[in-house]
Amino acid sequence: VNAKVESSLTQQSIKFVKSSPSAAIFGGLDHDIADTPMFIGLELEANNHNSEKVMFIDYGPMTAGSNLKLKTNNSLSGAIRFGVTTDSTLLYAKAGIGTSNWLLHLKSVANVGAEESRAYFQKIGYIGGFGMESKMSKSFSLGLEHQYTLNRKFTFAYREDIIKVNPLNQTTSFRLIYRF
């Protein structure tokens, strides 16, 4: 999860970067376009990526000794795939939409007293990606895919501060595919 975090009290931008393993289940349908090596497909995915990052912040007396945690753990998405197929390989690009849940948790231990604040968000995002699949047998394939999900920005008010978060999920997945 990468997220650009901006504060109304400072011009500083902070980038969260954290990789974590994920597990997903997906289902789809591909259709060969007649008399061409092209195909079009539809894919639905449920993902548990369980990513979080804690960042320590200190840009004034209101935030001294504070930390900000951004967490996301589940998402659902749907995408259209378009690509080229050979006897044993699929190469494709995909685009779609998805929704993810987010937790923003700010814990302050500033000189003015300890305080915590949380906000939960369910955000829609736009998906883009690319991948390939290689046939291992009639029913099984192995795949590799890289996907970007850009979620809409959300804001969080804390004391006199307005924190804006613009999250971007990037995932690289290795896939074992069973074809009916």
Structural class: mainly beta
Q: What would the average pLDDT be, to the nearest integer?
A: 83
Shape: elongated
What is the rounded distance between the termini?
33 Å
Tally the beta strands. Answer: 10
Summarize the amount of helix as a percent range.
under 10%
Tell me the series of helices and strands, N- to C-terminal.
EEEEEEEEEE
Radius of gyration (CA) equals: 20 Å
Q: Approximately what portion of the residues adopt beta-strand conformation?
A: over 45%
Largest sheet: 10 strands, antiparallel
Give me the number of helical elements.
Answer: 0
Q: Enumerate the spans where pLDDT stays under 50 for 5 or more consecutive residues.
A: none
Explain what the structure shows.
There is one protein chain. With 180 residues, the protein is mainly β. Helices cover 0% and strands 76% of the residues. It contains no helices and 10 strands. Strands 1, 2, 3, 4, 5, 6, 7, 8, 9 and 10 form a 10-stranded antiparallel sheet that branches. It is elongated, with a radius of gyration of 20 Å. The model has no long low-confidence stretch (mean pLDDT 83).
